[in-house]
């Protein structure tokens, strides 16, 4: 559609006067016309977006000199993408190159960037970027390119990499890395860092052809973000995980390499001449290295590798274990079926006295467990631990302890380790101190996973001396029981220690008083009952001498007992009859009805405590 035709068609819903004002010589008139059009677009969702875009491309045009008019123009384009259902990729393609050109303008880059972001939300980030690469490569101002890279960096954080053509983006970043401007190179490295967080370290292989200085800067950025999680996607409709997986699949498609392991090559790996075997293994290693992601189909290769793990030439053993580790990394989780085949043979190399052979074995086991999971190795490792080799047992137990502790730190659930229990108990009886120590270090992990009782049950077949030696080790490694939840009684407030003696003295079991004629007419004790009790006389003390206010209770309530704390009271004056429900030493005087308060049964312990604190004697309540 030509701009002239678009102007004629736009006259159906835009007045000729308004269209003329778009190209007026006065910037104020043009700005006012832009504001009017903004209001019209906002209130009329039926407008045709492409017609308006083509009219604006002519008047005021993408070369508008006044930044206020251009800012309003970009605002109209952004509003179209948000309000008009007719907005399409054609509208965006017409305007993206013009806005890319303004990304370096300090007055316009925000308006241009906001409009491009709105396009990405309405269409897709991939479409906006695909329309931007050519204009970006043609920019003459380095600042515009640097600011555009900063905008791309922010969009990757907001949108993620779902749906992106990653190879296309990396090619553009490599173009930017070749810029003579330091700001452009720095921003390009930052974008690579964001991609590293989404894709992983494999992205480095796509920039290895950069010069050493650039590679050093890229490696420094990758090291900085190595432990960072991918950014939380806040825009776009596609899930982050799905987008990341698709991007990895696009960058590193899985390849079927089984047809490359031909019969002549496998025969070469098994030749009687070690030099021929070496050449065959090197060819296999080259095939694996050339394919970062492979399908879980290796043909007859696992059988050939298994034979070479027992090769008499130690260098060929090491080379074979390196191939096995690389295969695990390239295949990932599906390698578990091959790990079960190769694990025992790899572990058997730990019997070797050479450190480099054992190091290669541990590296291969680490790759197996990391990529395919420890569950695929447990049964084979249990068989290997039975081997009566101190070096194998020690190194294997040390590695198992390290790997399991690392899995716990990464919050990875360990598989069932119960097959390891019998051979670990054998290791605890080994003659080698290092083996026994390694077994003791692994024992707590095993006990948490399997359970104390399950491991103790495995000791039933042990002889007396062996069992006596192992049981203390099991007891020492026994996990502490989980803390018991607090009971309702424990949650209650504890009695202070100084009052505990009196509470213990008065905490006597007594049956509930049966209702009789007197109790039937008696009122139940209320909160203030004790304060209304008649002031009962003590020997030698007049009732009027009692204070109207009770003194504060003493720290030791036992001091209020009549025969211990009140001078002038003779031991012979103790009442003759003991108070029901109270200790016998608290008085033996015969009670009289005149001095008895109206109470439903004998006083309780807390009532006696209050009475003692007020200076009342229990025994005298019943004296005549």
Describe the 3D structure.
The chain is mostly helical and 624 residues long. The chain has five domains: 1-123, Alpha Horseshoe (Leucine-rich Repeat Variant), CATH 1.25.10; 145-253, Leucine-rich Repeat Variant (Alpha Horseshoe); 256-370, Leucine-rich Repeat Variant; 377-479, Leucine-rich Repeat Variant; 533-622, no CATH class. 58% of the residues lie in helices and 0% in strands. It contains 30 helices and no strands. The chain has helices at residues 3-10, 16-22, 27-43, 49-61, 67-83, 89-101, 109-122, 125-138, 142-159, 166-177, 182-199, 212-225, 240-251, 263-269, 274-289, 301-308, 314-331, 336-348, 355-372, 378-386, 390-409, 421-427, 433-450, 452-457, 464-477, 488-491, 497-506, 517-521, 562-565, 605-613. The longest helix has 20 residues, at 390-409. The chain starts with a helix and ends in an 11-residue tail after the last helix. Residues 237-242, 491-495, 497-539, 543-548, 553-596 and 618-624 have low confidence and may be disordered. One of its GO terms (cellular component) is cytoskeleton. Its main location: cytoplasm.
Features:
624 residues; mainly alpha; Leucine-rich Repeat Variant; 5 domains; XMAP215; microtubule plus end polymerase
Q: What is the element string, with H for helices and E for strands?
A: HHHHHHHHHHHHHHHHHHHHHHHHHHHHHH
At CATH level 2, the architecture of the largest domain is Alpha Horseshoe
| Domains, number | 5
Structural class estimated from helices and strands: mainly alpha
CATH superfamily of the largest domain: Leucine-rich Repeat Variant
Question: What gap, in angstroms, lies between the N and C termini?
Answer: 123 Å
Q: DSSP helix count?
A: 30
Strand content: under 5%
Shape: elongated
The percent of residues in helical segments reads 55-70%
Q: What's the CATH topology name of the largest domain?
A: Leucine-rich Repeat Variant
């Amino acid at each position: 559609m030509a701009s002239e035709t678009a102007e004629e068609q736009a006259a159906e819903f835009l007045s000729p006067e308004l269209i003329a004002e778009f190209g007026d010589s006065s910037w104020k008139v043009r700005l006012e016309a832009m504001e009017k059009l903004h209001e019209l677009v906002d209130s009329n969702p039926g407008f045709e977006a492409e017609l308006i875009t083509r009219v604006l491309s002519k008047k005021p045009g993408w070369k508008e000199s006044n930044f206020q008019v251009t800012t309003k123009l970009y605002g109209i384009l952004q509003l179209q993408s948000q309000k008009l259902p007719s907005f399409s990729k054609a509208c965006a393609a017409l305007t993206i190159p013009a806005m890319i050109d303004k990304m370096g303008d300090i007055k316009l880059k925000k308006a241009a960037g906001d409009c491009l972001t709105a396009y990405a939300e309405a269409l897709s980030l991939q479409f906006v970027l695909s329309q931007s690469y050519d204009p970006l490569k043609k920019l003459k101002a380095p600042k515009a390119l640097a600011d555009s890279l900063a905008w791309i960096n922010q969009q990757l954080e907001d949108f993620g990499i779902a749906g992106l053509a990653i190879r296309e983006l990396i090619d553009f970043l490599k173009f930017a890395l070749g810029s003579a401007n330091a700001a452009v190179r720095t921003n390009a490295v930052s974008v690579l860092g964001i991609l590293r967080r989404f894709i992983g370290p494999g992205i480095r292989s796509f920039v290895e052809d950069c010069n050493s200085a650039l590679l050093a800067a890229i490696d420094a950025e990758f090291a900085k973000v190595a432990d960072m999680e991918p950014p939380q996607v806040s825009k776009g409709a596609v899930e982050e995980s799905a987008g990341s997986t698709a991007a990895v699949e696009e960058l590193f498609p899985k390849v079927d390499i089984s047809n490359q392991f031909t019969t002549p090559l496998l025969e070469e790996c098994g030749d009687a001449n070690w030099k021929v075997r070496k050449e065959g293994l090197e060819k296999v290693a080259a095939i694996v290295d050339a394919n970062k992601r492979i399908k879980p189909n290796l043909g007859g290769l696992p059988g050939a590798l298994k034979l070479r793990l027992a090769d008499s030439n130690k260098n060929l053993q090491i080379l074979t274990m390196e191939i096995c580790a690389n295969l695990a990394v390239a295949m990932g989780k599906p390698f578990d079926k091959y790990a079960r085949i190769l694990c025992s043979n790899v572990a058997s190399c730990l019997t070797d006295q050479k450190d480099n052979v054992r190091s290669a074995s541990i590296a291969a086991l680490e790759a197996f467990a990391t990529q395919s999971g420890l569950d695929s190795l447990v049964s084979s490792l249990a068989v290997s631990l039975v081997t009566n080799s101190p070096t194998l047992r020690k190194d294997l137990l040390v590695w198992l302890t390290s790997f399991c502790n690392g899995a716990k730190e990464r919050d990875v659930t360990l598989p069932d380790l119960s097959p390891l229990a019998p051979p670990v108990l054998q290791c605890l009886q080994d003659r080698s101190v290092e083996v026994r120590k390694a077994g003791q270090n692994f024992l707590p992990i095993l006990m948490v996973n399997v359970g104390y009782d399950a491991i103790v049950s495995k000791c039933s077949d042990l002889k007396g001396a062996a069992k006596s030696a192992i049981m203390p080790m099991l007891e020492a490694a026994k996990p502490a029981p989980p803390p018991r939840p607090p009971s309702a009684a424990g949650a209650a407030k504890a009695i202070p220690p100084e009052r505990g003696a009196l509470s213990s003295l008065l905490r006597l079991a007594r049956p509930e008083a049966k209702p009789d004629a007197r109790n039937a007419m008696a009122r139940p004790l209320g909160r203030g009952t004790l304060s209304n009790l008649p002031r009962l006389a003590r020997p030698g003390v007049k009732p009027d001498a009692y204070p109207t206010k009770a003194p504060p209770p003493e720290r030791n309530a036992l001091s209020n007992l009549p025969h211990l704390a009140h001078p002038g009271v003779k031991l012979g004056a103790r009442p003759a009859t003991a108070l029901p429900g109270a200790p016998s030493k608290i008085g033996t005087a015969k009670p009289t009805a005149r001095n008895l308060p109206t109470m439903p049964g004998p006083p309780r312990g807390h009532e006696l405590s209050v009475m003692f604190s007020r200076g009342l004697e229990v025994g005298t309540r019943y004296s005549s």
